[in-house]
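Hi V.,

You were right to ask for the full record rather than a summary. Here it is.
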Amino acid sequence: MAENMTLLWGSGSPPCWRVMIALEEKNLQGYNNKLLSFEKMEHKSQEVLDINARGQLPSFKHGDNDVNESYAACFYLESQFKSQGTNLIPDGAAEQALMYQRMFEGLTFYEKLNAVIYYTWFVPEEERHDSALKRNKEALTAELQLWEGYLQKLGSASNLAGPSFSLADVTVFPTVATLFRFGLSAERYAKLGEYYALLKDRPSIKASWPPHWLENPKGQDTLKDI
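Predicted structure:
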């Protein structure tokens, strides 16, 4: 069933990781996949552009269907393979509403993280200002406190939308893992630390763990003072 699926992806990219977790949860192992290098600009290769005109990763193809946006691909996989593997959209209205809310808030969370950890990557040297990076860090701090509060309300050992592992976790866990990869303090942000510890050994997440993180488990300290 997965033989007619192709995923072009980059290691450590949360959007790519979202799709990989969803594929694992839907028992779609065995899909065709190719690891590409952002540093070598392989995401701008013709191979990618043939699937994804934006020249971005992930680039995902199922048969004749191209579904490249990571959230779209996750929804697509859940819809097309609903009866297979984990049910990623809860049946209950309250849990489903919370799942959708946290999923889409997760996009803002990811943007605010990127504005800090990739500031020097995205902003040309002549346009960088300490005051701008300071504002970005303050915005990320406020966002982290918001998610700490969300998890506090849910109680210990909860997934993002309640008892069930859902698309909210598929899409937001990679952002949380990236935070700790870049040095966020699990003592200062205890609820996010608990959530990370709860899910990091889940089979779908372990199976799709970024290979360069495995090769170099230490990570960076960009966020140690946040």
